[in-house]
Amino acid sequence: MSRREDIERIAAALDRAREVLAKFTPGQVEHRLKDRGDPVTEADTAINDVLLESLPREGEGWLSEETVDAPARLSCERVWVVDPLDGTKEFVQGVPEWCVSVALVEGGRPVAGGIWNPPEDLTVIGSVEDGVRVNGTRSQLTARAGLQGASVLASRSEVKRGEWEQFRDAPFEVVPMGSVAYKMARVAAGLADATWTLVPKHEWDVAAGAALVAAAGGSVWTIEGEDAVFNRRKPKFRGLLAAAPGLEPPIREYLREPIASVLGS
């Protein structure tokens, strides 16, 4: 199967998600809370259903925030990792920072992905073979090679909890934003320089963003300093970082002590 077919499948799945979301008004959506306190809406489950119908074929695995995890995915070479609505909290509140997030993982490596942010009508789709397109137009990462003046997207929730207070005097601009998938996609699209989270994230939170940053030629790594490997038995990272390639060395150096503190805690 060619990568073009994978990209077409991702685009078609996002189109079906558009049809579902047309029935909902952000900021006016009923929701309930999951056991861990995160909101979930009818839109989350409805989009999950159409993605499940559209994406996996025979022999391909599936991992989604809104589906009970099945160990059978671990034996699959190709696995779809999705978050039907990444940023449900923002969706419920009417904050325009959420997206539908789809990734294809092969051999543990995110190789293709797509996100659609309805409020901005921003679609970012790409693969490691073909690069990234933003609303159909080829894009590229920023060329910044140093942290001075860089735009770093931060989790809005993490900022509210004070977890970015340690970067108050940083040489870069901290921009609070919801949805980690959306933030990573904006880095891949060249709309920001970097993003990171030093708190745990599930694979479905970051798989599409990781695929897109990698497709654009950027860097994605865990807080342990390693390449991010997906479709693991426990699908969760302790933290993840993504940036234009020229920023990886200065970010690693700048975050050496904060990361050491997290890993030592």
Model description:
The protein has helices at residues 3-21, 42-54, 88-93, 156-160, 180-188, 203-215, 248-254, 256-264, and strands spanning 31-33, 39-41, 61-64, 78-86, 99-106, 109-117, 122-127, 131-134, 137-138, 151-155, 173-177, 194-197, 201-202, 219-222, 236-237, 240-243. With 265 residues, it is of the alpha+beta class. The protein has two domains: 3-138, Fructose-1,6-Bisphosphatase, subunit A, domain 1 (Fructose-1,6-Bisphosphatase, Chain A, domain 1, 2-Layer Sandwich); 151-264, D-Maltodextrin-Binding Protein, domain 2. The chain is globular, with a radius of gyration of 17 Å. The mean pLDDT is 95.
List the helices and strands and how they pair.
Elements (H helix, E strand, L loop, with lengths): L2 H19 L9 E3 L5 E3 H13 L6 E4 L13 E9 L1 H6 L5 E8 L2 E9 L4 E6 L3 E4 L2 E2 L12 E5 H5 L12 E5 L2 H9 L5 E4 L3 E2 H13 L3 E4 L13 E2 L2 E4 L4 H7 L1 H9 L1
Parallel strand pairs: 3-4, 10-11, 10-12
Antiparallel strand pairs: 1-2, 4-5, 5-6, 6-7, 7-8, 8-9, 12-16, 13-15, 14-16
Distance between the termini: 45 Å
Quickly count the domains: 2
- What is the oligomer described by this structure? single chain
String of helices and strands: HEEHEEHEEEEEEHEHEEHEEEHH
Q: Report the structural category.
A: alpha+beta
The H-level CATH homologous superfamily of the largest domain, spelled out, is: Fructose-1,6-Bisphosphatase, subunit A, domain 1
Fraction in helix: 25-40%
Share in β-strands: 25-35%
Give unreliable regions as ranges: none
Q: How many separate helices?
A: 8
The level-1 CATH class of the largest domain = Alpha Beta
**Number of separate strands:** 16
Mean pLDDT: 95
CATH topology of the largest domain: Fructose-1,6-Bisphosphatase, Chain A, domain 1
What is the annotated CATH architecture of the largest domain? 2-Layer Sandwich
Q: Report strand order across the widest sheet.
A: 3-4-5-6-7-8-9
